[in-house]
Amino acid sequence: METYVISDLRVMALALLVGALLGLVYVLTALLRRLVKAGTVITAISDTLFGILAAIVIFVFTFLFNNGMLRAYVTVPILLGLAIPLLSYRKLSSLKRNH
After folding, report:
1. What region does 68 belong to: left with phi over 0, alpha with psi -120 to 50, or beta?
2. How confident is the model over 20-60, as pLDDT tens digits?
3. Which of 17, 27, 34, 50 has the fewest CB within 10 Å, making it most exposed?
4. Phi/psi at 95 (nearest 5 deg)?
């Protein structure tokens, strides 16, 4: 039984890392779009490509580390990991706009 718990905790930690890395990729693309002053079309294309990339990464992750099962103990850490860079970027962006 302890082996399952340790294995699930390891998968949760890796899911958090995957989410954080995906969030970092999105933040970097958002910064790049801001630097080149991308329009609506470029933004839509880059968001779509990011969505496809994220879906592939999450699919491969769940296939390799959780036998292809997408469960709450995998989904929640991915979402939390994704939220950390996104919220940080949003907070920093709002501080920059106010000054």
Report:
1. left
2. 999 999 999 998 988 888 889 999 999 999 999 999 999 99
3. 34
4. -65, -40
Q: Are 35 and 25 in contact (CB under 8 A)?
A: no
Residue-wise pLDDT tens digits, 80-91: 999 999 888 887
Q: What does the alpha-carbon distance between residue 74 and residue 70 come to, in Å, rounded to a whole number?
A: 6
Under DSSP, is residue 66 helix (H, G, I), strand (E, B) or coil?
coil
Tokens, residue 49: 């490509």
pTM of the model: 0.84
Dihedral (Cα; 93, 74, 43, 26), 10-degree rounding: 50
